[in-house]
Structures are given as C-alpha cells and as structure tokens.
Design a protein that fits this description.
Elements (H helix, E strand, L loop, with lengths): L4 H4 L11 E4 L3 E5 L5 E5 L4 E9 L2 E10 L2 E6 L22 E2 L2 H12 L9 H9 L3 H23 L5 H7 L1 H7 L3 H22 L1
Parallel strand pairs: 6-7
Antiparallel strand pairs: 1-2, 2-3, 4-5, 5-6
Helix pairs in contact: 2-3, 3-4, 3-6, 3-7, 4-7, 6-7
Length: 202
Amino acid sequence: MRRSRALYRDETFQPAPRADVSVEESELIVQMPDGACRHVDLDGASVAVVDAAFRRRFVRMLTLERGGERAAFITPPDHGAIAPRAVPLPLAPDDAAVVEDGAWDTLVEWITTGGRLAGRNVAELARLAVIATPQFAIAIGEVAAQVALEMIWERNGPLRGGADLAHSLRPLYDAARRSPRASDALVAALAVCGTRRIRWAG
C-alpha cells in the first residue's frame, strides 16, 4: 500500500510566517502574521537568550519576562538544521514570534546591551534604525549625527567639508536604501548636521 506524500511530508521545511518587530526606547511592538499586535514593556524585563528547538528545528530564542507575562522571539526555524531528539534543548512555545535573522540579531543586541543609544557607533545605530518606529528612528538619526560629527572633529576640526560627513554616515546611507525607517533616521541626521554647520559658519 502506497503512503500518501502529503501525510508523511516533513512540514518543518515549510517557511514559517514572520512577525515584524519595531523598537522604541523602552517598548517593543510586535506585529504578528495573523494581524495581532502586541506591546512589550522592556523596562525591568528579565532577558534570556538560548539555543532552542521549534518543531524539531534548531533556533535561537530570546525570551522576555515581566510582571508574569512572557514573550518569546525565535530565528526562522526553516533556516535551522534538524534538531536530533538526543540533544536536550528547551522548546520554543508555539506562539513564539518568528523574526528574520538580521532583525533578531539587532533586537538581541539592543536589549542585552542595556537599550541605550549612547556609546553606539554609526553602524550599530543604522542597524537599529531599520527596526525602529518612525519616531524612534528620528531620535536614532540625531544621535548618529552627533557621533559622525564627533568623528570629524577628532580628525579634522568642525569646518571640514561634506565628503567626510558622507563617509562618517555611510552605514546609515546604506541602510536607508532598503529601509524606510533608516531613511527617516538619515534625514534627521542630515538635518542636525546642516544646522550645526550653519552655526559654525556664522
């Protein structure tokens, strides 16, 4: 008797629907594939980042817990290797949000390093802007401008031409080509730089 291919097909190879994450300074907004929207307060949340299994696939899992509520975010299981049953791994919950690898990495970096803009370089700020809300992207751009200007001051003084500014903001320019939020951050950064240079010239 022939077995049905549909019955015995390994469904773990099917791409999992992705969730979109948007970062604020102290809040995470999660748009689930089914249209549900969840707001996660990051202040005081406990954080764990572990290897896990989801439907027999290796994933990386970020867990946030606060006030008795728990939210899990995992890398795409369809990108992971099959997890052998002999390897004991924590199981990701069925309602875990599946987040693209790059966005997941940026989210983990932001949360595990304190959730502060200060002390970050332009490349780190550009990655963060890609997953930021529109309002937070503007704040990120303003900080990126300060970082870029400080780099120029250290090398050449405050009246250096625009070529060095473009070079200092290059990661943000690159991110803006593929992300509307990074584009918002770039516009904010250029506005700050233009204002500062007008003041110096005057």
